[in-house]
Amino acid sequence: MTNYLLKRLGALLPTVAVPMVLLFVMLRLAPGDPAAAIAGDSATSEEIAEVRTRLGLDASLWEQFLTWLGRVVRLDFGNSLFADQAVSGLVAEHALVTVQLTVLALAVAVLIGPALGIAAGTRRHGLLDRVLVFGSSVGIALPSFWLAVLLIAVFGVVWQVFPVAGYVSFTEDPVLFLHHLALPAISLGLLEAATLFRYSRAGVLDSLHQPFVTTARSMGLPERTVIRKYVFRAAVVPMVTVVGLTTGSLMGGAVVTESIFSIPGLGQLLLTAVQRRDYPVIEGCIFFIAVVYVLLNLVIDLLYSLLDPRIRY
Amino acid sequence: MHTTTEPVLRVSGLSARIGDLSLVRDVGFEVHRGRTLAVVGESGSGKSITAAAVMGILPPQIKAEGSVFFDGTELLGEPARRRRARGGAEIGYVFQEPMSALHPLLRIGTQMIRPLRHHLGLSRGEARDRALELLEQVGLGGERKVLDAYVHELSGGMRQRVMIAMAISCGPRLLLADEPTTALDPTVQQQILRLLVRLREELDLALVLISHDLGLVARYSDEVLVMYDGRVVEQGLTAQIIEQPAQPYTRALIDAAPRLGRRVDRLPTIDRAVLDQTRAMAGGV
């Protein structure tokens, strides 16, 4: 187990290194010049060149790469080219918001999806099942930003029960925090709930006729106990993977949702940084996302062995 | 046959169909307390369907008709809830593959304790003690660790012993064992059959032993029911049928079993003509 953990953590390094190097190359190949942006519209070419030198962007790509590598291995991403702020602080501050939004959205998805999946799976072909299957098809097909705009129109504009944009930190006011994040979390989470619904329904349908479930029935246990203790227990394991993947796509989806609701999260930070070619900030954001993905996968695999005694590392 | 008391189970005119396809037709037999009935036939002969129909665990698309009279009550047509409640408490069922019939993610103890608490109203601690006694009864005494084990950690024989311990745990009067030894080594097969017969005596059970191997179950049964193509071909006392089978199909089934010390180049098969004749004969009943 300890061996396995060390091995997995060791694998973290190349898994994060590859996207980082790719990112470095792609950013420098992409059109756009941060020096020109910083110097401003009215700057002369001498002024732009001066900024470029100050930022070290006039060196050859190899030199830039080596300097970059030297800093990155020490986890030092430097300062933003625009705001005079350390990248680490910027990323931490914005990531916190995104993580909060993701957790809330995940809670929405996990609370709704599996419960409905069990309800539908155990009443296959019933009215509830048919309605939910149709609803989940719609949910999977819809883009989250569409739902976000719809929710804003209904609950923000027509009924005005939720604010249409903005963010209040949890420490400042927990109630306002939830009030502001409710619509974004629902618009993100509801669509992921549709995916979770599909998987849990399929899992339940699959387990319902497993021999060990027949055994439980043959022992005279009431159907409710059979479903709760035997069917669901078997269906829950593969769902851990789905929840893991969902968390990943939620973080990705948060980028779009954040910009719709003007939430100062990682998505907004990244978007602005890309528009301005703020290389260090982009690199910091991507680094954070890559590490989270890898760790998330590790956590899923560990959870797997916790839930299934046949899996041991 | 040997006794004047009421049989624990009397099946008559039992048929099972899936849509228009008939799986079992007009099957009838009786089992008394303390007796063993072997139901024998090849794959697809309908013996497992018959057992599942008695137990009430047929897949929903299969419909059963006829009569399953258990201990003074007609089971077919009984409300599903009542029927379910008899499982474990009145009728025990031993499945063919203990590996898949036991939950892979729950400890053996958890799986044994739940029916005990449900049917007998035992506390958690009492149920655990009872489970240990049961394990002892099926020859897993001193294996305290079995309760905390998962099914994949046990050997094939141990798994089937656990399965049997569970099936008898809530005091059934009838035990249905569907090919209980098919998944096991030959030596373990004999052990498990001996265990079933011993338990039948100790608990005064009526035992239905389903098998494709007439030679194997002959030694452990009092009566035999031979099935082919969903119908009863022959039934009677085991000794008589082994001595003098009335039907060529039964004779062929006995001859088809490989025996130790008898060298053969090719295992005998059952003649096509015998099969056709058997089907015609059974269908004509």
Count of helices of chain B? 11
* CATH homologous superfamily designation of the domain at 9-90 and 171-283 in chain B: P-loop containing nucleotide triphosphate hydrolases
Total number of helical segments of chain A? 12
- State the CATH architecture of the largest domain in chain A: Orthogonal Bundle
| End-to-end distance of chain B | 22 Å
Low-pLDDT stretches of chain B are none
CATH class of the domain at 9-90 and 171-283 in chain B: Alpha Beta
Strand tally of chain A is 0
Give Rg of chain A in angstroms.
Answer: 24 Å
What does this structure look like?
The complex is a heterodimer of chains A (313) and B (285). By secondary structure, chain A is mostly helical. Chain A has two domains: 14-73, no CATH class; 87-307, MetI-like (MetI-like fold). Helices cover 78% and strands 0% of the residues of chain A. Chain A has twelve helices and no strands. In chain A, helix 1 packs antiparallel against helix 12 (279-307), helix 9 (211-218) packs across helix 10 (223-260) and helix 10 (223-260) packs parallel to helix 11 (266-276). Chain A is globular and about 85 Å long. Chain B has a domain at 9-90 and 171-283: P-loop containing nucleotide triphosphate hydrolases (Rossmann fold, 3-Layer(aba) Sandwich). The longest helix of chain B is centred in the C-terminal third of the chain and has 18 residues, at 186-203. The mean pLDDT of chain B is 90. The chains are: A mainly alpha (313), B alpha/beta (285). The interface between A and B is medium-sized, with 24 and 30 residues. Chain B: One of its GO terms (cellular component) is plasma membrane. Chain B: It is a peripheral membrane protein. Chain B: It comes from Lentzea waywayandensis.
Output the keywords.
heterodimer, A: 313 residues, mainly alpha, MetI-like fold, 2 domains, 12 helices, 78% helix, 0% strand, B: 285 residues, alpha/beta, 4-stranded antiparallel β-sheet, 23% strand, ABC_transporter-like_CS (chain B), ATP-binding (chain B)
